[in-house]
């Protein structure tokens, strides 16, 4: 579940271990808060601007933070941890009480958990009440319930999963979502096209549907046209992208679009395809693919045995082969 992966993520950051958290390495620094004229938390200086004396066996906050930032330090940022995670670790040095217990859920505005085998996005995600960006790519999510998503989300990335149905995601979607990443999933049209409208995503600016199994270009465009704020669209890798007039039809049908399949739409291109959206008859629902076989290995050669079977008294032997192509 997401909750289990999140706890594992926190454990990898070591927020309660040296040089983070409370410990013998910074005990007197935080005890100084109880003194009326002690140094300010996390600065290691007195009100006069003079540096506090660091007791023997302890480290100053600056030195502890440097241990987290040094590229060759054994406490440097762990692999696959982003800038938000590094900021969290430094917070655990300067103000560790902010990352203790349930307080930590109020800090996260961005969270990235990729390649951890997450199958279920459970209600534990709702504890992150300030979360604006959630990246759960390269997991095993087949369905997601929007009721378990924070309403504050603006970016949701679900690429490289097994999502085939958007019904649960669109039941109560985050109202302010600006980017939705669904590339490299198992979406099939036209059953899923109806969930890609402004009724569910009124503030969507960027949409990634690349490398799915979407086939109905006309039906998809009729739904996407309701997304008045959509500026970035990725559809490459779908069967509908094989249609010869694919790009021109999209450019003319979605006049507010700025980038299509990672390629900027310039005014001259939009002028060149002007009027194509009013000619749907140019869109064919079939594509021909020619395959030529140069060499086959691992299959017995029938011609070599044919000569032996000519004079044979036994019944003729027929060999059959089945060749399958996966697109």
TrEMBL record:
Keywords: Leucine-rich repeat, Repeat. SUPFAM superfamilies: L domain-like. It comes from the Eukaryota. InterPro entries: Leu-rich_rpt, Leu-rich_rpt_typical-subtyp, LRR_dom_sf. GO terms for cellular component: cytoplasm. This is LRC43 protein.
């Amino acid at each position: 579940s997401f909750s289990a992966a999140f706890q594992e993520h926190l454990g990898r950051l070591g927020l309660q271990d040296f040089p983070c958290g409370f410990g013998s390495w910074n005990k007197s620094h935080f005890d100084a808060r109880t003194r009326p004229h002690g140094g300010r938390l996390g600065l290691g200086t007195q009100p006069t601007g003079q540096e506090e004396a660091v007791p023997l066996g302890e480290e100053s906050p600056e030195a502890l933070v440097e241990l987290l930032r040094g590229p060759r330090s054994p406490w440097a940022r762990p692999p696959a941890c982003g800038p938000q995670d590094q900021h969290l670790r430094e917070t655990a040095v300067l103000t560790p009480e902010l990352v203790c217990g349930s307080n930590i859920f109020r800090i996260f505005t961005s969270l990235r958990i990729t390649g951890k085998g997450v199958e279920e996005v459970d209600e534990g995600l709702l504890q992150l009440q300030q979360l604006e960006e959630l990246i759960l790519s390269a997991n095993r999510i087949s369905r997601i319930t929007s009721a378990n998503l924070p309403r504050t989300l603006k970016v949701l990335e679900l690429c490289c999963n097994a999502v085939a149905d958007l019904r649960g995601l669109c039941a109560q979607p985050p109202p302010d979502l600006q980017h939705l990443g669904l590339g490299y999933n198992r979406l099939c049209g036209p059953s899923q096209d109806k969930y890609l409208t402004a009724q569910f995503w009124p503030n969507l600016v960027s949409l990634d549907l690349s490398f799915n199994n979407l086939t109905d270009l006309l039906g998809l465009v009729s739904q996407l046209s309701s997304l008045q704020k959509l500026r970035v669209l990725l559809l490459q890798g779908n069967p509908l992208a094989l249609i010869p007039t694919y790009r021109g039809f999209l450019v003319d049908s979605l006049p507010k679009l700025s980038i299509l399949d990672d390629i900027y739409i310039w005014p001259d291109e939009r002028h060149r395809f002007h009027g194509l959206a009013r000619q749907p008859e140019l869109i064919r629902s079939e594509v021909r693919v020619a395959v030529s076989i140069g060499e086959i290995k691992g299959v017995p050669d029938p011609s070599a045995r044919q000569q032996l079977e000519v004079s044979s008294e036994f019944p003729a032997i027929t060999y059959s082969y089945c060749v399958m192509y996966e697109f």
